Amino acid sequence: MLRPKMPDAAPVSIAQTPTRPAEHHHAPVICSCAHTPMASAGRPLSPLVGRGVSAVAAVLVVGVVLTALLATVAITAVSVSIAALVLRSLLNSAHKR
To answer: What is the DSSP letter of 57?
Structure first.
């Protein structure tokens, strides 16, 4: 009751060759209105690509710098905690004598 049944698929013949859709050849439409050609932007595409590369390089440099700063903070925190443990050990042993 709760198991759905899949419909039987139609058998596919392997011997059939795929048919190509009909190619449509349209003649250019000639109109009597005066069209002006589209003006180009006046900018080549290469500076935009250069900006993308420089943006990626800037993100990578910022990422490396932030990672280095985070590592420096972590190393400093570990060093300070070790120094605090050593000082506490020295002070505790001095009070016991």
So the answer is: H
DSSP code per residue over 60-95: HHHHHHHHHHHHHHHHHHHHHHHHHHHHHHHHHHHH
Name the pTM for this structure: 0.43
Q: Which residues of 74-91 are buried (b: 16+ CB within 10 A; e: fewer)?
A: eeeeeeeeeeeeeeeeee
Structure tokens, 92? 């505790």
**pLDDT (0 to 100) of residue 59:** 92
- Report residue 37 as tokens: 């050609």
**Phi and psi dihedrals of 13, rounded to 5?**
-85, 130
Rounded CA-CA distance 43/6 in Å is 58
